[in-house]
Amino acid sequence: MAAAGSVKAALQVAEVLESIVSKCLGPEGRQVLCTKPTGEVLVSRDGGRLLEALHLEHPIARMVVACVSSHLNKTGDGAKTFIIYFCHLLRGLHAVTDKEKDSLISENIQTHGRHWKNCCQWKFISQALLTFQTQILDSFIAQCLSKHFLSIFSSSTKERTLCRSSLELLSEAYFCGRVAKNNHKFISQLLCDYLFKCVTYKSEIEEVFELLDDCFVELNIGVAGLPVSDSRIIAGLVLQRDFSVYCPADGDIQTVIVTETIQPLFSASASEFVFNSEAQFQASQFWIMERTKAIMKSLQNQNIKLLLSSVKQPDLVIYYAKLGGISVVECLSSEEVSLIERIVGLSPFVLPQICSQHDICNTTLVKFCKPLILKSKRYVHLELISPCLFLPHCIVLCGPVQGLVEQHKDALHGAFKMLRQLFKDLDLSYMAQANNQNYTSTPPIYKNNRENHLLKEIGNDSIQRPYQGTVVKNKDELATFQKHLVVYSHLEIPNVELETYSPCSTPKLTSADTYQTDDIMTYLSQNKARKIDDHEPFIESKVIANSTTENTKLEMSDENVQVTKDVGRRNVLPVRCKSLESYRSSSIPAGCVLPVGGNFELLLHYYLLNYAKKCQQSEETAVSMIIANALLGIPKVLHMNKKGNDSFPRIYVRMLHALQTSQPMVSTHTGLESVAGKYQLLTSVLQCLAKILTIDHVISIKRQPQRVYDQDSEDDL
Amino acid sequence: MARLEAKKPSVCENEPLTSGRVRSMLSVLKRIVTSCYGPSGRLKQLHNSVGGHVCTTSQSSALLRSLLVTHPILKILTASMQNHVSCVSDCGLFMAILCCNLIENVQEIDLTPTTVIELNKLLLSLCTNYLKSEVCGCRIPVDFSSTQILLCLVRSILTSKPACMLTRKEVDHISALVLRAFLLTIPEKAKDYVILGKTIIVPLKDQRVMDSTVLPGMLIEMSEVQLMRMLPMKKSSALKVALFCVSLSGDFSDTGEGTLVVSYGVDLESAVLDQLLNLGWQLVRDQIDIVMCQKVIHPSLKQFLSTHRVIAIDRVGVALMEPLSKMTGTQPIGSLSSISPSSYGSVKDLCTAKFGSKRFFHLIPHEVTVSSLLLCNRSDTTWDELKLTCQTALHVLQLTIKEPFVFLGGGCTETHLAAYIRHKTLNEPGSILKGNECTQTALRLIAEAFCSALESLAGSLEHDGGEILTDMKYGHFWSVQSDCPPLVNWPDLLSRCGCGLHSSQEELSWSFLRSTRHPFVPQNCLPHEAATSANNLTLDCFTAKLSGLQVAVETANLILDLAYVIEDKN
Questions:
Q1: CATH number at residue A381
Q2: Are A409 and A222 in contact (CB under 8 A)?
Q3: Is the residue at B265 inside a domain?
Q4: How many domains, in total, are found in chain A?
Q5: Do A53 and B10 touch (CB under 8 A)?
Q6: Do A273 and B266 make contact, defined as CB atoms within 8 angstroms?
Q7: Which Pfam families does the UniProt record give (chain B) (predicted)?
Q8: Cα A568 from Cα A588, distance rounded (Å)
Q9: What does the DSSP assignment read for B324-391?
């Protein structure tokens, strides 16, 4: 009974969390005020922050919060949605078991419930969930939903060009859930302006998002006490320091970075300096001074006008810098230094051992550097001449209180994280997952059924990618059966080919290989990862000369290395292999979006229901039904307060009708949201749920448990 | 090993604004700030029960610095006010009262918070657009050719802080001084951009307020010993100055992370002293007249310098270093030997001055951008208050240079703005609500709440139970004694409006502020002529008030938007 209790307990926890979170969800959501133990006050609508601020005691709640934060670390979005899904899933599970007791419901579900009860294994359900997540969900996304996907990129060109209007829609929808209603338009506008100012080319901006996500802390400045509308974007980089020395200079400015004090010190650490006489002391002081002077002189001769230092420089250095007309900024944080290094590719200047007249090579040009005063605090304002795609700009965020400024900062940072995810292709490596332990627990037949089913689906699939890649073809016409082992690194054009030709005269394959052969074929080229599935069942007897080349790959997902196993059957006309093979796109391409307002959920719901109807396996039907119904939770909450045409039932009916008659769906919302984000969210929720279902007892102990790796957290999707 | 302690769970409060506790706390805070507001505001005495410093004040910055609030919502409000004051110095109470009024007024209206927030935002943008526009009837452009308006502005600030305890004459004196001190910081040679100098406020307690004065240049307090050593200056030309930022006490810092070993018999002190005396010789050779040091000068060096008729001033402190180096044109020297001649500067003259019991060096620069304001007041608390007020006034003057406008003070801006909004929302609701889902009824309700918040803010200027009226032409603020007869001839009873721009003899009609009235178009009174004619206007800082209005509405919106308060109890 402890197991059933765990669902009930988890449901109670989830419902409490849901009631808090649902008030902050969506465009109508409201704010939460959190205080820190230090007395600081924070304003937030960020689900992750909110959950952490609660300092929950309940062990299950803590587990949920941990799952949410690990999800957030990855994607930067969706904490509130996470809780709502989670709660609805638990409710669904709970209802199934409850209904069984009441014996009031349709036979179908009742039998599943009894089945589960008989098994008395929540673990089994959990595995069913995981199986669903790893095997069925991905194919759904790839096949059914993909035809509804929109792209954030401009459709006119083939290149990935950022389209302002769709970016605006996307960011507006994002900020709707993150900042107060009266500010979201402004902040979203600020983000779009910022991006379009920072990015030189409108294409190939993935690395810019990476940089923005990593270094956003250094790229913004908060000012409390001014109205939010005073926030603005400044060209160039603003360092949160004041000049130690400021010498105005015109034109481009030569700059160096140092990470140590320029003035030599008497003794380095772990060494001893012995004074034997007064004269020696005076001489060494004189030497120190002369050397400092010489270094500063050589900097001056190199026409260096700005010295950025990560440490505090002694008075002497400052004095000579001032005499030499060199501006100095001291005590830069290591993050600031690394950001500058990253933007301009400049490495710190190493003090020469012997003072020579050699050119200092590690210099860079700065367009200008001047003090910037914000709220009577002085900052250093630089404009770097950036050779890379990123033109540094700085956001000045204003707000009446620090808490609000922090909220906007977090929201912007989250938005960059979200965009970074969006501009990456997301692999759906579901086939690889099929090979792990779950496989053994489910009967082999089960899998084949599914495969067959998927095959049918593929027939209708609109998205079929032409096979453009380099198929490893077998030139050897004599060999009857060949096995290639191609190893190549991830995200690169297949270059390292480790081919082992092992002629198999005896068509003997071990059982371990059998299920791999009809699996996947991964094709990687440039930075687009696509998995193309090959569904020709491998039949040993057909291994004859002159047959088609068929590639089967085995993925080793823990390293970025893929071992490709090419099981070849040869054909006289290799061209024909295109027609013989059917392909399926197995990745969410970069920039895929759907309209907001629960569109993703409604679509997935629809397809899952369809699937459940066709499905033979009882577990799958049940799991699909539960997930499908739980998915409706989000649109329900979003349309909670809406009346008339916008009320949830009407929207639902309209959507169903549109899908059945394959008309375009009409959305009441104008924003867009990332598909990859939604997909990752769903997988995270399922994983979290699976994790929690496997627990049957919660034991409280007095001391801290030893860190042991959880068996169930192995799934590394 | 650090002790690990389990974290206590936080306390989560649902819909905080509906709870009676929060409401009563807000109303207490509102009463505190409202009672301080304006020239006749009541003073607050802050002290702790164990006999610490007593602070008598009515200023928001001083009040909130020492006031500890516990509830997070109050923290938001007070933090917002403090941040506002730290940005623009003035209008802190204005912001806090308006914010409280808005929250209070809106709570009685049965609309969802989202609607309220949206409408508040619309009304705010209506206000700011009007206040920034040319047709605005409650702002006056500043005429820099005369000091009239600036003087009025400073005087209004001084009179609005009753805790300074100034008489009318003293107010006039101090405001003239503040204005003069400010004008001295403006460089004479204007480039394409102007860097303002600095006014240094020098405390001089136990003197009469009327003894306060302004001097160009800088005052540095002088000790008795220096006075004894002081010899009459011989030179009539400019004096050469060396300014050290490095310590001249012969101490020995920055030796590195390793160890230093001094062999027996080696006297480092004398070595250092030799070095200092060498430096002294160099200074004498370079014909330096004044040596100043941020830190300490070794007594031997001091002695040496004074025998060579060089004045040594040490312990200047880091705060004065920047104005000193700017004023004298020196570069702070960070080296003990080989000083470049280019780092010396000069002053026009150095004299000693005696104010009260204190003696000062008075450095007179060639070009004045630094001024010293000697502020006198009899008691410590009133001096603190006066100093804060003068700093506010100086900051406000700087802001006024950036945006050369002033608002009409004395409550007139608020009543005028309220009249404008009433008129606008009644006559053009469609254009205001364009692209918005809110209904006109909702707009009217919120506009009424917004206007009454502004009007009751103006009304809080009156603390003696008087009645508040507004005229039906300009929408200005008029106050009248409480014990007036019911049927009176208003023009006889009233003299001038709150800001002093209009007199009661202009054939106006009045109505009580709190009564219901027909909305009217507040007229623009030709401010140029009026401003020059009236010489005693009450004025407010444009930047500070505008920002205060925005911050107040934004803070109120923020507080109204709160669905939960999560308090961390760790």
A1: 3.50.7.10
A2: yes
A3: yes
A4: 4
A5: yes
A6: no
A7: Cpn60_TCP1
A8: 29
A9: HHHHHT---B--SS---GGG-EEESEEEEEEETTEEEEEEE-SS--EEEEEEEESSHHHHHHHHHHHH
Q: Which pairing describes strands B198-205 and B370-377: parallel, antiparallel, or unpaired?
A: parallel
Q: Domain span at residue A250?
A: 237-265+275-390
Q: What is the nearest CA distance from A265 to chain B, expressed in angstroms?
A: 5
Give B559→chain A minimum CA distance, Å: 9
A147 to each of A137, A169, A382, A460, A584, how far by Cα in Å? 15, 20, 47, 11, 13
Same domain, A94 and A45: yes
C-beta separation of A430 from A139 below 8 A: yes
The answer to whether B394 touches B186, Cβ cutoff 8 Å, is no
How far is it, in rounded angstroms, from Cα B12 to Cα A54? 7
First to last CA, chain A: 31
Of A24, A31, A318, the CB nearest to B334: A318
pLDDT in tens, chain B (570 residues): 456 666 788 888 888 888 899 999 999 999 999 999 999 999 998 888 887 788 889 999 888 888 888 889 999 999 999 999 999 999 999 999 999 999 999 988 888 888 899 999 999 999 999 999 988 888 888 888 888 889 999 999 999 999 999 999 999 999 999 999 999 998 887 777 778 888 999 998 888 899 999 999 999 888 777 766 666 666 667 889 999 998 898 887 667 777 878 888 888 888 889 889 999 999 999 999 899 999 999 999 998 998 888 888 888 888 899 899 888 988 899 888 778 888 899 998 888 888 888 888 899 998 888 999 999 988 888 999 999 999 999 999 999 999 999 999 999 999 999 999 999 998 888 888 887 778 889 999 999 999 999 999 999 998 888 888 888 888 888 888 777 666 667 777 788 888 888 888 777 788 887 776 677 777 776 555 555 556 788 999 999 999 999 999 999 999 999 998 988 887
A318 vs B: CB within 8 A: yes
Buried b (16+ CB within 10 A) or exposed e, B465-484: ebbbbbbbbbbbbbbbeeee
CATH assignment at residue A118: 1.10.560.10
Q: Are A697 and A1 in contact (CB under 8 A)?
A: no
> What domain range is B255 assigned to?
218-367
A374 CA: distance to closest CA in chain B (Å): 9
Residue carrying structure tokens 């805070």: B29
Total domains present in chain B: 3
Record: contact A57-B118, CB cut-off 8 A:
no
Are residue B318 and residue B384 in the same domain, yes or no? Answer: no
Q: Which residues of A touch B193 (CB under 8 A)?
A: none
Q: Are residues A125 and A29 in the same domain?
A: yes
Looking at the fold, whether B427 and B314 belong to one and the same domain comes out as no
Which residues, 6 or more positions from A9, have their beta carbon under 8 angstroms from its beta carbon? Answer: A58, A60, A698
A285 part of contact set with chain B, CB < 8 Å: yes
Query: In angstroms, rounded to a whole number, what is the distance separating the alpha carbons of residues B319 and A371?
Result: 19
Pairing of strands A304-309, A253-258: parallel
For residues B175 and B251, state if they share a domain: no
State whether the Cα torsion A103-A104-A110-A116 is positive or negative.
negative
Domain presence at residue A456 = no
CB contacts of B337 in chain A (<8 Å) are 286, 289
Q: End of a domain among B382, B403, B424?
A: B403
B1 in a domain, yes or no?
Answer: no
Clarify whether residues B239 and B352 are in a common domain. Answer: yes
Test B337 with A33 for CB contact under 8 angstroms: no
Q: Kindly identify which residue of chain B lies nearest to residue A704, measuring between CA atoms.
A: B4
The shortest C-alpha distance from A320 to chain B (Å) reads 8
Q: State whether B79 and A402 contact (CB < 8 Å).
A: yes
Inter-chain touch A54–B566, beta carbons under 8 Å: yes
What is the distance between the alpha carbons of residues B491 and A381, in angstroms, rounded to a whole number? 58
Task: Tell whether B416 and B551 lie within a shared domain.
Answer: yes
Which residue is closest to B85 within chain A, CA to CA?
A: A225
ipTM of this complex prediction, to 2 decimal places: 0.89
